Amino acid sequence: MDTKKPKWLLPVIIGAAVIIVAAIVLTVIIIAGAETDVVKGTHTHSAPIPALGAKVEARDGFVQVAESDTYKLYYYEPQFSVKLENKKTGAVLESTVSDEKDDGKNNASWTGYMKSGIVINAIIGTLNTYQVDVNTVPNDIETYYTDNGIYAKINFKGNYQFELGVEISLTGDEFVVRVPDESVIEHKDGTYISTVSLFPFLGYTYLDEQDGYMLVPDGNGALIYLDNKEGRYTTGFSGLIYGIDDGMTNHTAVSTLWERYETVTSSNNVIAPVFGMAHLDDKLAYLGIVESGDERCSIEVVPNGVMVDYNRCFAKFLLRDVFVQPLNQSNSGTVPSVEQDRLHSDLTVRYRLLSDENADYSGMANSYRSYLLGSGKLAKKDTAYNTRVDFLGSDREAFLMGTTAVTMTTADQAGDILDELRGLGVQNVLSVYKGWQNGGLYDVPVNSFSADGAVGGNSALKNLVKKQAEAGNTVYLYDDALSVNADTHSTTYNVMKMVNKRTFKEETHGQVYDTFYYLMPGRSAGDLARLTKDLVSAGIGNAALSGITEKLFSYSSKGSYYSRTDTMDIYEDAVNAAAENCSILLETPNAYLWRYSDAMLDMPLSSSDYLYLDCEIPFLSMVFKGIVPIYSEYVNFEANKKENFLRMAETGTFPSFYVAAENSSKLIYTNSSGLYSLEYGSYRDTIVEYDKALRELAEKVDGACIIKHETSADGLVKVTYDNGVTVLVNYTDHDITDGGVTVGALSYIVKGGE
């Protein structure tokens, strides 16, 4: 028998071996990619406990513990209470309700709350219902001097057996309160700290004893007046900074009509970690900035009549929570469970103290801008005016066993539209091109430059970006870096699991794709890195990001728990790396990403319209104007276009349009069916009109900051810039005269800047 092997066998064996090895390597890479999330965040979220001096001697009343050029800080240890006194005026901000201002209407629990400088919610077993304060729970407090304040060790006894330290400091016009992460110790198994509220009554007022208001970080900004609400409201504002945690909260589908059209508009996320209180009679105010622990903190702004007759606003930090754990895959039974670990971050609130003419919301905005620039959390960008004209490239509709392209705007058509607008006087357009990728708008995630043939392919898209750059326009490619479509991409290793280990799903009731998932943060970071590298190689250095810019969640992976802190770190590192390679625009970004964006997209010009809000103000616009360009939400979908136009003039916001070359009727069987008004021809004249008017205004205030915003008794809004320009806006239906200048109904005028 001839045992000699055929000559072709060896190459076949070698080839098979290579294929097997390659498959193994690829599997390892995929799994490794999924496991990038098991690496905790690399940012520092805590600082050491300060050096301690002599022990503060306990007294019957308040003792002065610090002094700056402008304020004195007093401290009362038994209630862990402070007072801040303005040295010039003698006006005082108190942190607990004094006996003189106690109306005697409240039960023991609320009285203990109002008279404690720190209030904790505790978890015992799985019940998160226990209030812990220094008045109703046995405790020991030891207080020591530091360089510019005190450090208090608070040890709660009885059923709770936990302790924490609080550092309080006064420097200049800044009052800082911090709980170092390392100071938090829970001694008793099964008993945990859930939330920590630091000085929840700081600056409180009783009913309408003081003219003033509280700043609410809803939308662009809003105020709740300190007038007597007469018990009209049962709740105040409570918003988790950076939005709800989808890793902890069961997600429900949006409300729809006929399972197709959204009928309820979602409330705004809190993207800025701030709140404030202004006492106008005393000319004393503060802006509270949650400086660390913001990723798991809510802003509470509560008017009088809600439980008690006191106005108060504060930050409430969430250290640990109870969630619902399904008992089986079908979710037919659930049990409450407590998070395995707590938040590990310092809990810090910085109060910027304001007085005299600065003690109002304009002063708060100016102070916040100064803080952001000084701390490097916001960077000065090119603020030259651009009208924003975005394009929808392609989507998909069902066809036989798959889908087929619905082309709305090819790259060539987008170029033709921009060329026509330039001929009509619309220069220097900023444009975000959506649905450019292979598979259309909802074929996500995107991790390479691969343009859909329906819009012209890579060559046409590169040509569009290049030609428009030469003409002075900038085209950005859109990327939802958060979502994954299970119908178009594998979700085996990539999707986020909630803390209860169930896969998170976002139900959309789309015509073609009705379920989306969130990518694991490490996978989002990897995809974004590959995409931006690919864009640069293709000569396209511009990307507009969404998804990861406004979502933040906890999650589980391979039996381990990861917090919003970990997700925040991964996202920030990913966006930072992308910004080093490309020009980056961010859609409604959370505050920790502001420094990386060359412009703010989709800035809300109004609030969520809660009943207890008394007045909307352009707080964030005042902060950003002159520092970074801000672009409105799409004009197409605004019901009151006249009022929306006036708001852009008032706030210095640049307009945004979302258009397509084809009629919106083509989208009826796609996931974009809700985009009912896109056709460029319907908006061409409006784009030209808005561009002419708002460009003229922008050129007079380019690089200037808003330093004062006020509304007169007759309804005239006056906006003052630091270059001397004043914009007067009249939202009423009649003419208003101010200083010899008449502003027509529903119009505005600009003074100065000639």
Q: What topology emerges from the helices and strands here?
A:
Layout: H1 9-34, E1 63-67, E2 71-76, E3 81-86, E4 92-94, H2 108-114, E5 118-124, E6 127-133, E7 139-146, E8 149-156, E9 162-171, E10 174-179, E11 185-186, E12 191-198, E13 205-206, E14 212-216, E15 222-225, E16 237-240, E17 256-257, E18 261-262, E19 274-279, E20 284-292, E21 297-302, E22 310-318, E23 322-326, E24 334-338, E25 347-355, H3 361-374, E26 388-392, E27 394-399, E28 402-407, H4 411-423, E29 430-434, H5 457-470, E30 474-480, E31 483-485, E32 506-507, E33 515-518, H6 521-537, E34 542-546, E35 555-557, E36 560-562, H7 564-581, E37 583-587, E38 600-603, E39 615-616, H8 619-624, E40 630-634, H9 641-651, E41 654-659, H10 680-701, E42 706-711, E43 716-721, E44 726-730, E45 736-738, E46 741-743, E47 747-751
Helix pairs in contact: 4-5, 6-7
What would you say this structure looks like, in words?
It is a single chain. The protein has about 750 residues and is α+β, with helices and mostly antiparallel strands. It has three domains: about 10-40; about 65-235 and about 270-375, Distorted Sandwich (Beta-galactosidase, Chain A, domain 5), CATH 2.70.98; about 390-750, Alpha-Beta Barrel (TIM Barrel). The chain contains ten helices and 47 strands. Strands 7, 8, 9, 10, 11, 14, 15, 19, 20, 25 and 39 form an eleven-stranded antiparallel sheet that branches. An eight-stranded parallel beta barrel has the order 26-29-30-34-37-38-40-41, surrounded by four helices. Strands 5, 6, 12, 13, 16, 21 and 22 form a seven-stranded antiparallel sheet that branches. Helix 4 packs parallel to helix 5 and helix 6 packs parallel to helix 7 (about 565-580). The longest helix is centred in the first third of the chain and has 26 residues, at about 10-35.
